[in-house]
């Protein structure tokens, strides 16, 4: 039963409504200024269809899609293991997975460069077999996975923990293998958490800046994603920078709406 609506008191208006309005203005005014300035800027529409914007868009969507696929393939079984199994060092593994969330991305990019650069042991061995990772599209994907995977794994883990293990055991007593019970019972019940986490992780990947800059560089057409293209365009082409910024704003808004839609679907199904 929903609580009855009460007329807000004067104290609530001062303590709640005023700070809310100020914060919304703090967020909304810069975004509105970006849209107004961007849509009215000279060269905005030409830049929107220019090769700099299109190349950055294409690279961002391709690399983030690959990163999302890797996150699903590797992160899903990892999240399930963390949700269902108890093993020595589980707390350490859990903490290491979530560390990139609080670690400055530029530090993560530098760490990857130290690990896979030509002067490192791993990077030297890879270079010896003809595989050079830094400053390539592969490095972009790796940087995006580094910063974004924790969001997917964390959400997937919570989704799996919300599924009653007894349902899996019941399916197995009826003859289903553990793998079959996972795909027929667990996954259908946890899919909203997985999809919601994947949406947020993909948004984090496509907006990544610091780790990509350090590990993959800012090479137009090769490693220059949309955030990096905005930085470069600010030096010479404000219209292109504004066009990329408006596109990123539209993508971010779409991701937010998609995440909220999946969350609302989950709430209605649980009701």
Protein described:
With 271 residues, this protein is mainly α. Helices cover 79% and strands 0% of the residues. It has helices spanning 10-39, 44-48, 51-84, 90-102, 105-116, 121-128, 137-161, 165-173, 178-206, 210-216, 226-233, 238-270. α1 crosses α12, α7 crosses α9 and α11 packs antiparallel against α12. The protein starts with 9 loop residues before the first helix and ends with a helix.
Offer a concise description of the structure.
With 271 residues, this protein is mainly alpha-helical.
Task: Give the SSE layout.
Layout (H helix, E strand, L loop, with lengths): L9 H30 L4 H5 L2 H34 L5 H13 L2 H12 L4 H8 L8 H25 L3 H9 L4 H29 L3 H7 L9 H8 L4 H33 L1
Defining traits:
271 residues; mainly alpha; MetI-like fold; 79% helix
CATH-derived architecture: Orthogonal Bundle
In CATH, the topology is named MetI-like fold
Estimate percent helicity.
Answer: over 70%
Tell me the name of the CATH homologous superfamily: MetI-like
What is the overall silhouette? globular
**Number of discrete domains:** 1
Structural class: mainly alpha
What average pLDDT do the residues reach? Answer: 86
Please give the count of helices: 12
What is the N-to-C order of secondary-structure elements (H for helix, E for strand)?
HHHHHHHHHHHH
Main beta sheet: none
Overall strand count: 0
Q: Give the radius of gyration.
A: 23 Å
The fraction of residues in strands falls at under 5%
In the predicted model, the low-confidence regions spanning at least 5 consecutive residues are none
Query: Under the CATH scheme, which class?
Result: Mainly Alpha
Terminal Cα span: 11 Å
């Amino acid at each position: 039963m929903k609580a009855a609506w009460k007329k807000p008191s004067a104290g609530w208006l001062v303590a709640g409504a005023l700070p809310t309005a100020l914060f919304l203005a703090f967020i909304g005014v810069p975004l509105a200024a970006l849209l107004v300035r961007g849509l009215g800027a000279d060269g905005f529409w030409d830049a929107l269809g220019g090769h700099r914007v299109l190349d950055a868009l294409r690279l961002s969507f391709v690399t983030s899609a690959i990163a999302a696929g890797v996150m699903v393939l590797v992160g899903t079984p990892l999240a399930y293991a963390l949700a269902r199994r108890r093993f020595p060092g589980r707390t350490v593994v859990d903490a290491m997975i979530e560390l990139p969330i609080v670690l400055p991305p530029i530090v993560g990019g530098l760490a990857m460069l130290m690990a896979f650069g030509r002067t490192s042991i791993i990077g030297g061995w890879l270079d010896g077999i003809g595989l050079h990772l830094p400053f390539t599209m592969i490095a972009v994907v790796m940087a995006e996975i580094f910063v974004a995977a924790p969001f997917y794994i964390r959400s997937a883990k919570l989704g799996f923990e919300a599924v009653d293990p007894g349902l899996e055991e019941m399916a197995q007593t009826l003859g289903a293998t553990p793998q079959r019970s996972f795909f027929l019972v667990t996954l259908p019940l946890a899919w909203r958490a997985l999809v919601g986490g994947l949406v947020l992780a993909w948004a984090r990947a496509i907006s990544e800046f610091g780790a990509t800059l350090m590990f993959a560089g800012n090479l137009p057409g090769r490693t220059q994603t949309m955030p990096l293209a905005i930085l470069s365009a600010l030096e010479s082409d404000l219209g292109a920078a504004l066009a990329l910024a408006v596109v990123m704003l539209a993508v971010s808004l779409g991701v937010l709406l998609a995440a909220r839609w999946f969350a609302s679907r989950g709430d209605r199904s649980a009701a």
